Amino acid sequence: MKNHMKRSFARGRSGRSHGRTSGRTSLIDVLVAAELVLALRCVLYAIIPRGQPWMILLVEPLHGFTFAAMWCATVEYARQLAPPGTEAKMQALVNGLFFNVAMAAGSLIWGFLSQRPPDGLGFTRCFWLDAALVVAWLAVWRGGWEIALRRGWT
């Protein structure tokens, strides 16, 4: 089983290089783009003037790109990692992690942090913090991916 998982990680079931959506675009590139647009969304939310909440409507369409790109790439990535016959289990795992664990943890943390100071940071500071954390995580994740590629782990 261990060797099969290693092979599954390195290549999709079809024998193609792992992490490819087409000849030009990798799943990693799609995830990176989605994360960068998410960081941009957070910055745009942070700079919206307090007296003009309607401006959120100008930023919110970016959610369509960030969620769709992230979810499509994640689902395909999970499919490629799953051993043959376990694709549905892998999708259930990804679904559970995102919609249950991540949403619960994020809601709990955001609820405390977004309270007005002195009890929390407030919405504006939270969005700046989110943008910084997304970019920092992206740098760490992308760096780890590059190391894995150089060492031949993928």
Automatic annotation (TrEMBL):
It holds the Pfam family MFS_1_like. It is found in: Membrane. Keywords: Membrane, Transmembrane, Transmembrane helix. The chain crosses the membrane at residues 26-48, 54-78, 90-110, 122-141. SUPFAM superfamilies: MFS general substrate transporter. InterPro entries: MFS_assoc_dom (IPR024989), MFS_MFSD6 (IPR051717), MFS_trans_sf (IPR036259). Residues 1-22 are annotated as: Disordered. Its main location: membrane. It comes from the Eukaryota. It is a multi-pass membrane protein. The keyword RNA-binding does not apply. The keyword Membrane applies. GO terms for cellular component: membrane. Residues 24-114 form the Major facilitator superfamily associated domain. Residues 1-21 have a biased composition (Basic residues). Belongs to the major facilitator superfamily. MFSD6 family. This is Major facilitator superfamily associated domain-containing protein.
